[in-house]
Batch of 3 targets.
Target 1
Amino acid sequence: MLYIIVIGCGRLGSYLANSLSRTGHSIVIIDKNQNTSRLLNSEFSGFFIEGDATEFSVLKQARIDKSDVVVATTQDDNLNLMVAQIAKQIYQVKRVVARVFDPNREIIYRDFGIETICPTIISGEVFLDAISVPPAAMGGK
Amino acid sequence: MSASAYNYMQNKYSAILSYTGTILIITSMLFITPLFLLMFYPFESGQSAGFVLPMAGLAGLGFILRTITRKRAPVVLNVQEGSIIVLLSWIVVCIFSALPLMINCQLNFTQAIFESVSGWTTTGLSVVDVTKVSHLVLFWRSIMQFAGGAGLVIIMLSAIAGPPGPGLSLAEGRTDLLVPHVQQSAKLVMIIYVSMIFIGTLLYILAGMSAFDAINHSIAALSTGGFSTRVESIGYWNSPAIELITIILMIIGNINFLTIYLLINRNFKAFIRNGEIRLSALLILVSFIILLFFVTIPLYDTLSSSLRVAIFEGVSALTTTGYTITTYSNWNTTGYFVLIILMLIGGGTCSTAGGLKQYRVYLMYKLLRTEFKRALLPRSAVITPFIWQGDRKEYINDNYIRQLISFVFLFICVYAVGVLILSFYGYRLEDAMFEFASSLSDVGLSAGITKSDAPAVVLWTETIGMFLGRLEIFVIFTSSVKLFKDLFLKI
């Protein structure tokens, strides 16, 4: 059983929270907006915290010092980076995963030792597959 | 109805019945527990059939429900479906729990249902003559309170079978999780509850109770149930030590499990900050002073018995336990009024207590204060009232206020109707108000109306009051309407 903190209760964050909660993990999800909690369905049995995840008081309330995993899934790359950094550097959370939309920023994240997932690259590759042109034929990048 | 809609309904109700079946099977295990007492009271073995037969019936029904609904798609339950499950299983369980009483102590159907609902809802009003029934039956009454108090059925279901969704716990009136997962929370609640009962039993034994009395009273005090093994209730022992232990156990039983968890984790700041703690401390103090000076000092000879009665009865009413060390027949109306108000306010949310709940009263007080503030501040000032839930700050939005108003209105309506029905039978108004407040808030103090020879209508009115009071009244109304519509209007 892992103690997982999810930052951002959007479509992705709520999906992760629901699935992880169903499989028996302890989940705390943080979002600035209380209304987003409606995306959590009845499989979710963790805590929802309304607040700004860049504030220490909110992270402390979520017991970040006791967490095993932190996942940053907000729309904002910079915010994800900042929270991930706080989790990694200050609280030494074992595993930190962040979402980053801008492929150019991935290098910065890697320098900080933060795992990233880039939806832009992932969907780009799937798109390329779909129109059946191998990525190599596009000439690099 | 179209084929797909029919399929959807069938799927949904299969899931509902299947979960209900699981709950029934789990609950049927409880029926065995009184039989362990046969080790100490072997001469009562003649009564074991009265427990084994209902258990077999309940478990059988559970298995049948599970078998006929086996081929179902997995469904995630929402609040409404959860409440239908709770409603159905509570009704079935209450009926089956009445059977041992009918078989073993010659109660008729009305009396047995009354006693079983009183047990499961942790009320403690009783029509059983405790001097004449066996130890097995006495212990069975305590087991009902033990299970009903913790919302044990749901807790066990989520601990064993995994989360069926928060709908169930919402309908049973417990929504607060101790840790961010329902299964771990359920286990923690069970551990806290059982160890407190164990400690309570030890304390009672040290204070001079027999082991059998100790365990029964410890269960009934912590579940805020209030069934006693003696006619005079706690008054039988006439011992300040036992009264003190009982007061402490009742207060613990009335505190929200989440708040107790804070206390165990030594988070005293969050504990003191909790609105329910503050409110109940204030209420206990104020009611003690009023009862002392206006009721007990004029009534009793010695100061010590005045003090003891004033504190004990106030705590018993507020925590909705219903233990007593005296009778009310010689009390003045001030005493009645104070106890009625305390009973109607009732205990903490998500505790084992009933009533309006201190949380709602505290919320109303907060809103009143906010309105005053608003009147004094400039018109454009922004005020956001909040309350502390554990160590989380929760802002009060309109949604809360809507639910609060609807609940309070419904509660008052049900209370008025109940008092009206009791008054048809010629009881004095204060007695009728006292007795129905005691039923609706699941307290169990009695002004003398509840007796085995009371008219059947009176007993049924109180039974329904207890039932509505224990399960969240609002959820029960909406889910019954939903059930009725689904069953009779659509198919």
Target 2
Amino acid sequence: MAGATTAGRAHAPSASSKYFRKLSATPGQIALALGIAVFLAFFLIVPVGTVIYVAFTEKGTGEFTLVNFLDFAQTDLFIRSFWNSFYVSAMSVVVASVLALPLAYITTRFEFRGAMLIQTLGFLPLIMPPFVGAVAMLLLFGRNGTVNLLLNDWFGIKIPFMEGLNGVIFVQAVHYFPFILINLSAALRNIDRAMEEAAQNLGSSGFRLFRRIVFPLAMPGYIAGASLVFVKVFDDLATPLLLNVKDMLAPQAYLRVTSIGIADPMGYVISVVLICMSILAMWISARAMRGKDYATVQRGGGGLAKRQMRPWESVLAYGAVLLILLLVLAPHIGLLLLSFATIWSFSPLPDSFTVAHYGRVFGESFVYVKNTLIYASIAGLIDVVLGTAIAYLVLRTKLIGREWLDWAATAALAIPGVVLGIGYLRTFYGVQLPDGTPLATLWIMIVLALAIRRLPYALRACYAALQQISVSLEEAAENLGATKVRTVRRVVLPLMAGGILAGFVTSFATAAVELSATLMLVQSNADAPLAYGLYVFMQSAAGRGPGAALGVIAVLLVALCTFASHLIIEKSQKAKAAGR
Amino acid sequence: MLRHSVAAAALISTALFMGPAFAQSGKVTVVTSFSKDVTDPFKQAFEKAHPGVTLDVQNRNTNAGVKFVEETKANNQVDVFWASAPDAFEVLKGKGLLQKHKPKAEGIPEKIGSYPINDPENYYSGFAASGYGIMWNDRYAKANNLPEPKDWQDLAKPVYHDHVAMAAPSRSGTTHLTIETILQGEGWEQGWRTLKEVSGNFRQITERSFGVPEAVNSGQVGFGIVIDFFAFSSQASGFPVKFVYPTVTTIVPANVAVIANAPNKAGAEAFVDYLVSPAGQEVLLEPSIRRLPVNPAVYAKAPADYPNPFKDTSLGAKVKFDVNVSEKRTNAVDVLYDQTITFQLDALKAATKAIHDAETALAKKDNAEGKALVKEARDLVAAMPISEQQASSPEIAGAFTGGKEKGARQAELEQQWAAFAKERYQQAQAKAEQALKLAR
């Protein structure tokens, strides 16, 4: 929004404002939209375009053709992959909702000790360091993981948690349910208490109150989270590959793009299909919300009324919360064990424990931690600034083509990291600094790649937050003589704060463990983030323990930052409530 | 947002004018797929031997490394490429991205086993050797009462069904060489038959080489077809794993090359020379590395049980490996394996299981008709969509390289081959099930 402020102030002469109102946008808004478009063009569309245009060229001649898409439709493997991806994504949304709904509802709606801690813990699954997370998960839930070894000893059975498509659904739901949790919680906190009270006065209570009033009002948050889960699962390649499920679309694209020596357009064709599907999913979710008004005028002091639970309710609630947390945090418990384990092989628990792995990574992890913090926070900031600006342009102006900003940003979800990495090298390596260093070797390029990759997360959060704010508040401010810029700064932004923070945290945390684009762009160890350090360790048998130790450090780091931001939300809401 | 891009532009322009003076003297940039456990000891030893020189190690997987060198060739900043897979070096050489350099080292023979150690044109040099073999988790084997395998054919036995893993040949240059070794050693038809019989017992076909030792180490899979040092370094880290070289194995060199237009050519050549010098070769013996030196004299300093391919003639000597044959059909073999095995693994496994069951039943109650059906089923599984001559024909090779000439597209071939295999696996399963009924 910083851009809106400057640009808006510079070009808001009141004489011509009537003329511009006819265009439904102020010059400031137009400039802002153009600025964002240029940014996306430079750092997303052009680099990616230089890579995937191959999808539209004919073999041999290089001329434009659509025959590759015909091949896609005629290949059984791709069609099978397409439906598998679709099924897995849809089911992951269902399972993730089952995990997220109780946590979000219980912690925002009741006086519940440790609500903040639960919000933080419930967020951790999103931060799954590459490779080690997978190993930890297999050591617990795999065919010969802790759970199955014990079950086999006791009852002579094994449960295929991690087999085939259902395994992918299980892992994806655990991994991505925080998207729903965090967005839904933010939305629940934003509901006006008066709505609930009105319903209660009219005799509604209990589940009916939740179903008819509370949940519908929180719908923007839920849809934001659910659509992210769907698209992310559809586009994710790491989890299926870890479980050796290859007949899904994203893994197929990855395998083809990264095989050496083979020049095959199909990997890029699949990328194009992924991008189209992501945009389609976002368009449908926007469609579903159209014509409904979720905004409430009055901002409740701290959202819904929090109430005491009766004793049996308490037991039930704590039981449910603990069970869910235990399930979703299992990978992190496994990671922690692994980081202290000497040897952990075909046994329920490690043979013995040691702190040597931490000793090994302690010296060198400092530079990784520093880089990760710098990269992820700058990327997170870029993302919330862009996210807020795009959400504002889409929801509050009538600029022609404004949705395209949203869709372009969302398309970033579908682009495999390695494609973005190659695109950056191709676009920016030729650009040289005066001393001959290529532009692409600067660490700021890693930051920009991370920001682009994580922009959709922040964007969805900001979008949902703005959807919940009634336009009439802004109109009131403007009627009282405030300029658009002042209205945005004094009214819109403070009301969106919770959503913006949620967006920042999601972008920050996931950027902190991102690897695929980073691996292409890291130019020296001194510029490397944690995920890269982890990768370097995880390529050898002796590196498993140190890798896990680095993974734990990464998770703790992100968890601390998340906890701090939750503290801030809580504080600010308490302050608001007190001021009422 | 505008302010942000202004800030970014400002940042970039400041960097433009204040960019750090790029000290080239003394820095050697190495792109490698080797893990820290391998690169750290070499970095230390090399920097000690050449004071004032720093080795800047950039870890990337082989594919990313090749792509990186290729994409950045216009303004190359990399001096050395250092990795296992010979095919990655072939790709780089083919694209003119390597610089000729003949290391000044003495006592290194022409060949190890039957594989030439150095590129005949001196674009890249072997510095360590590795052989393929079978690695297994001892606890897993004991818990499941599985015998210790000795040879590839053992892994085709029914007891190992669903217990074996391997990396896909299209994803791992060294697995590709193993496949090619079996194909050349046993011939095209028989070779694929063996491969499919073994693959029918697979639990997983992983997409990265290290995925296999990782799965065996953690006990998720019992047996893995891996390159020897994965097993040796796992043993050195304390994992309960064992390893055996089968009778048919190739010993292949891991390589190093100087990149064309290297910013520090002298430093790059010094590093390559160091790797093949006696001092550099000795670093290979460290427990966390455990690769086979290419200098036979260095084995004198190795521990007693260290495999020595120069003495132990069973290692790699049995196979005559023809690089030219391999080169012509590299992509065809990889894609054939992926389309008929990797992506059809469920169907192949179902057919294999049915055949095993039928054979077990027939062993108890003989039935001539049943036996004939099982033989038919085995032949159906082994059938390949194209012949050896077709595989190395320019028409098929051209489909994978995106060459200028018009021809069949890769996707078309893939669909044909996959459909061919799938149909036959289903028929094979039906025949084996029929045979099982006859034996009841």
Target 3
Amino acid sequence: MKTNKQTRYIPSKGLAFAEQNEMNKLSRLSEKGWLLERFSLFGSGFIVRRGPAHKQIYCLDIQHVPQKDENEYREMFADSGWGYVCSAGDMHIFVAEPGTVPIHTDRSTLYEKYRKITRTSKIFAIVVMLLTLITCVLLYLSRQVWDHQLLQNISHVSLLLCAVCFLPSLMVYIAYSLRLRAFSD
Amino acid sequence: MTKNNPLQMEQLSDSAYYILLALLTPKHGYAIMKYIEELTEGEVRMGPATLYTLIKKLQKSGYILLNEDEDERRKTYQITSSGTALVEAEIERRLRMSRHGNIAQLNAKEALTHEN
């Protein structure tokens, strides 16, 4: 990259844990002339690009949008003053001038926003937990019963991978279910 | 509310009620928002994510449908007969509710004058 960098990487605390926080951070960055361009690889943060310094507000929507509806979905936002910026899976980020009508104006649709992702993260956490248990059993068997070195190594590595994924996946699920509970009444 | 079974909406949420009112004549997304704003003289303004979510939900429940025959660039929606029946019942229900409010206010006033 050149010495006068045009883009910057901004790490994210994770949208599941600090959604509003991250959106406010992006807004502050726009004030300083760093405008959101896209999610970074693997969604670990954002890539911002140099632009005119101008305060804008950012908002995240979580919505499964089939490809045939993509134009319609983005047009509805554009018509109400929300410009489309980028997506990662079902997560879409929009930008607008301060004071624009919020993208969600109804609690029931905010609930919908978090309903599906909560279920998905729950399934993911359960699968990771099951895999952890299975590899535990496999490790035990390969060590104590079969006494098989290769199998033992494989299960060792997979147990490590599972254990590394388990806590974050559980935390994401807990974060979303708390958010979901806040919007149910 | 309708969270346990999102496809059953015997009682419409305020936002869904306004969308159905707007779709008594066919409209596209932005026109729905504009119409609601005009109808309520700016009191109700609907965000695009709420509009999109509810349109898809109402469409799944068969209360509105996408106009297929038009080859306009923008998709327009229109209310179905079950949607019309639902919104008519809802208008009546909401009228009854505001009448109940008026009666309760009158009752309270009368009770006060009796006390004095």
